[in-house]
Recover the amino acids of this structure.
């Protein structure tokens, strides 16, 4: 099984098709995607779109948990080495 390449920038689904349509309207994909993301973030901040909010909180929670586990393991190893 081939391993995925590192540092490869993945395109969003349908990015090429949307880019063509937006270009006809005089808008770049980057401008459009930034506006979409900003609108979603504002919606989340205002209490709407709980699915997105929960996904972001889940990702943040996983980072906190992972950091805590690593720190606990480092403490345990340091304590057992002393």
């Amino acid at each position: 099984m081939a391993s995925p390449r590192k540092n490869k920038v993945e395109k969003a689904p349908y990015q090429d098709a949307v880019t063509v349509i937006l270009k006809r309207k005089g808008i770049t994909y980057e401008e459009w995607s930034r506006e979409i993301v900003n609108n979603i973030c504002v919606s989340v901040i205002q209490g709407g779109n709980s699915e997105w909010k929960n996904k972001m909180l889940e990702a943040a929670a996983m980072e906190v948990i992972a950091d805590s586990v690593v720190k606990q393991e480092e403490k345990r190893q340091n304590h057992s080495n002393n």
Q: What stands out?
A: The chain has two domains: 12-48, 50-82. The mean pLDDT is 83. Residues 12-48 form one domain. Residues 20 and 50 are 31 Å apart (CA to CA).
